[in-house]
Amino acid sequence: MEVRGVHFSDFEIRDEIVDSLRDIGITSPFPIQAMTLPVALAGRDIIGQAKTGTGKTLGFGLPLLDKVIAPGEEGWDKLPGAGKPQGLVIVPTRELALQVAGDLEAASRRRNLRIVKIFGGRAYEPQLEALKAGAEVVVGTPGRMIDLIKHKVLDLSKVRTVVLDEADEMLDLGFLPDVEKLLSKTPGTRHTMLFSATMPGAVVALARRYMTQPTHIRAADPSDTSKTVASVKQVVFRAHALNKIELLARILQARGRGLTIVFARTKRTVANVAEQLEERGFAVAAIHGDLGQGAREQALRAFRHGKVDVLVATDVAARGIDVDDVTHVINYQCPEDDKIYLHRVGRTGRAGHTGTAVTFVDWDDTPRWSLINKALGFGNAEPVETYHNSAHLLADLDIPEGLTGRLPRGSRTRAGLDAEVLEDVEGKPRGRGSRSGDDASRRRGAPRDDARTTRPDAEEDAGKRSRRPRRRTRGGESAGVDKGEDRVSH
């Protein structure tokens, strides 16, 4: 919720930034932004802590942009190292890099700033060319940035402001050593801001090593003692594995249901759920580790643009998804722990909106759910047993009576995933007719043929290393090659 009576124009921010925000309808800050801006604009290091979806991006983005000098602005001709990055934002995932860069671009639309996105899964050449042409702000993931530093293309020696966003996720993904390498390449006089939903010990230790007397800012309503955002309604059902898809299909027809993210633990389940929902008439897309970067970005764009209204995703693939108007998050499979639960549920109820979080707890998930329930203080250790025809299901989620597990043809109004352009890794548009057979076969989330022997629970993440190809034999004859992370099924 915005802070009443406070406007961005009240802060000592460049007029071009305030006007750019006004152009897109943003005039008043959220609490984390209102608390952060005066301290950050004064040049003090900050540790910002707030629940997911409360507006941290502009909290660090506006002070960063305010200090940057763009080509043609006063002081540019006297700037040492003009054209080298002055601002650096380190994020854990590609999706978050795109989201943060998009917000920074929106806030600087009236200036001649060059904001470059750096992350893996894309070709090096466009990123190399962008850096060589000059960049005032770089937003990216640690691995690719370190690679570009090694190639002597990315120079951080003139950076004035460094932001570590979602530091706890970088810890989970094993990126903290890489983050330390990046920080060591920046000047010791830099202004540093660290933002994180939680503060594990390793993150606190990082802050102590690389920050100077940081101000700890925690934005929370004193009356809100929950760990989840108060605007999100939490609903938990004990659901049978064989009835989940029917249950899900009814929930997706609830009154007022808009963009929805369905989470599952494995990429196999994600692909299967997406396929079944599509067969039932829903406009659906999937993102998981077996999809190429182009297909993942196509799915996210289709979701953001409303061409599909259901996104089925694994936890790793969905990190950093930031869409303000997601109305429902559905945990098709119970999360592994309370941290993952908070990450998933944080995709709804963002930026002052309300949302609904639904969790299916299978009988096998009872011990896992008990720990989550205890950690988050829900007081619901024994969820009510629920089936697609349970009366309380309709009442709890405002679902009309008389529905079936298929979306009526008259309600199938979304354009679908095929209406969104699929780009190659260099970012060149590709029409539907130019898809390869492999692209076409998995455009809605089916795993690639070469991944169908992968362990179901072996989700791709940034910290994994490829194994050497191994040749197996039977009786002295070759029986196939096991490449990378794919394993031959028995």
Description:
The protein has 490 residues and is an alpha/beta fold. It folds into two domains: 8-218, 3-Layer(aba) Sandwich (Rossmann fold); 232-441, 3-Layer(aba) Sandwich (Rossmann fold). Helices cover 32% and strands 16% of the residues. The protein has 17 helices and 18 strands. The strands form four sheets. The protein has a seven-stranded parallel β-sheet with strand order 3-4-2-5-6-1-7, with helices on both faces. It has a seven-stranded parallel β-sheet with strand order 10-11-9-12-13-8-14, sandwiched between helices. Strands 15-16 form a two-stranded antiparallel sheet. The radius of gyration is 23 Å and the shape is globular. Mean pLDDT is 84; it is low at 221-225, 426-444 and 447-490.
Main-sheet strand order equals 3-4-2-5-6-1-7
Query: What is the name of the CATH topology of the largest domain?
Result: Rossmann fold
CATH class of the largest domain: Alpha Beta
Distance between the termini: 54 Å
> How does the helix and strand content classify structurally?
alpha/beta
Identify the CATH homologous superfamily of the largest domain. Answer: P-loop containing nucleotide triphosphate hydrolases
Total number of β-strand segments? 18
Number of domains: 2
- Portion in helices: 25-40%
CATH architecture of the largest domain: 3-Layer(aba) Sandwich
How is the main sheet built? 7 strands, parallel
Q: Helical segment tally?
A: 17
* SS strand fraction: 15-25%
Overall mean pLDDT score? 84
Unreliable runs, pLDDT <50, ≥5 residues? 221-225, 426-444, 447-490
What shape does the CA trace take? globular
